[in-house]
Design a protein that fits this description.
Blueprint: E1 2-7, E2 10-19, E3 25-32, H1 35-46, H2 48-51, H3 62-77, H4 80-98, H5 108-120, H6 126-145, H7 172-182, H8 188-197, H9 201-205, E4 212-213, E5 218-221, E6 223-226, E7 242-243, E8 249-252, E9 260-263, H10 266-286, H11 308-321, H12 331-342, H13 347-354, H14 359-365, H15 367-384
Antiparallel strand pairs: 1-2, 2-3, 4-5, 5-9, 6-8, 7-8
Length: about 375
């Protein structure tokens, strides 16, 4: 137990540590001028039985706690893009708002006010708030493990309800219109692969010819390619992947379930086989001006590898120019999933095809389509009974 007594302009906390082996009473004294901090320390010590031990009082600011977690834990344990997704909101939002608070003084109220600020003043979504909270929680978890705080206050925060994102998808007819528009352009191969396989954008541009088994008609999805911004280059570690000749980062796929085999349909087989021959022919014509690499998606002009951002921008511009419904390149993946589910494909297979962690992820992303399919099943039940 602990008690507090005001002495002049300071506050003295007396912590009872029990008795030593000789039966002598042990005490610890802490003197501090800040009443709020003293009150918090007193509360922490008096909750030792619930929270598992004492912590040393310190004036470490939350900014230091966050940065310790970011550079000593996250940087070496997560994918590079994940690290970037932690870095940017931390310095744009979290540290400016919470960074100067002493970690031991951080309260549930501080966090709830911060999340309200994100939604009301910054216009961020509940899902984004959830990501901010996850990083704050991880940083405090490390601080608790290091005995810098008694408890993780993020445990007690009530988060706003997250809205389920509804994918924008194309119909089969819209897809074929898109195919006709990209034919003969740099976008043709990426769009065809994305639509027929459900690969992520980074997986499409990271695809190499050695990953395609034409004999067995299987694509082995093993790598993804991203374009890191210059300011983040210093944070790239060997575990994150290797740099390509065009300044992209070629890395392993997102996780174990992302590393997968995807079947090649008859249409895709013909497109890829023809493109492989055409790609070699284009490089032969260019001679010494040709750029050689093993990537499937390359520029028609000189054979250089495709940058992920180029696909995103070119894809958007194409849709705008031709008055097609605006979707993201990533929504080609959603389109394939939706069309398969609508045509009664097994959800477990669709989940494996997309590289989702489990079927619950697929069901959450395509809830409306799954619900419609369930209604079709219910109708079938009525017809057979």
């Amino acid at each position: 137990m602990a008690s507090m007594k005001k002495i002049g302009k300071s506050y003295r906390i007396t912590v009872e540590l029990g008795k030593d082996t000789n039966g002598k009473r042990q005490r610890k004294y802490i003197t501090i001028k800040d009443k709020k901090m003293a009150t918090n320390i007193l509360a922490h010590y008096n909750s030792q039985e619930k929270f598992g031990g004492f912590v040393t009082p310190n004036k470490k600011k939350f900014k230091e706690t966050l940065e310790h977690w970011l550079y000593n834990h996250a940087l070496f344990n997560v994918e590079f893009l994940t690290f970037v997704s932690y870095y940017e909101p931390m310095y744009k939002y979290i540290i400016p708002k919470l960074g100067e608070i002493y970690t031991q003084q951080l309260t549930v109220s501080d966090l709830e006010q911060y999340y309200a600020y994100l939604m009301n003043d910054c216009g961020l979504s509940a899902n984004t708030v959830k990501h901010h909270h996850a990083n704050i929680h991880k940083a405090l978890k490390v601080a608790k493990k290091n005995k810098e705080v008694m408890t993780n206050v993020a445990d007690d925060v009530e988060l706003p309800k997250v809205d389920i994102y509804e994918h924008k998808v194309y119909t089969s007819e819209q897809l074929h219109t898109l195919f006709s528009l990209v034919k003969g352009k740099d976008l043709f191969i990426p769009v065809i692969i994305g639509a027929y396989t459900g690969l992520r954008r980074s997986e499409v541009v990271g695809l190499q010819w050695e990953d395609i088994d034409f004999k067995e008609r299987i694509i082995h999805v093993k790598h993804a390619k991203i374009r890191p911004r210059k300011k983040f280059l210093k944070y790239i570690k060997p575990k994150h992947g290797e740099m390509t000749q065009d300044g992209n980062l070629l890395k392993k796929t997102k996780n174990k379930t992302s590393t997968r085999d995807v079947p090649i349909s008859e249409v895709l087989y013909e497109v890829l086989w023809k493109w492989r021959i055409e790609q070699k022919g284009l490089r032969f014509k260019l001679g010494k001006d040709a750029i050689y690499n093993d990537f499937v998606c390359t520029m028609l002009e000189d054979g250089r590898e495709m940058k992920p951002d180029l696909i995103t921008q070119s894809f958007h511009n194409l849709l705008v120019k031709n008055n097609l419904p605006i979707i993201r390149f990533h929504d080609l993946r959603g389109t394939l999933a939706t069309l398969l589910i609508e045509n009664d494909e097994n959800i477990k297979y669709v989940s494996e095809l997309l590289g989702h962690y489990d079927t619950r992820t697929t069901e959450r992303y395509y809830a409306k389509t799954v619900k419609a399919r369930m209604q079709k099943v219910a109708t079938k039940i009525d017809n057979v009974i």
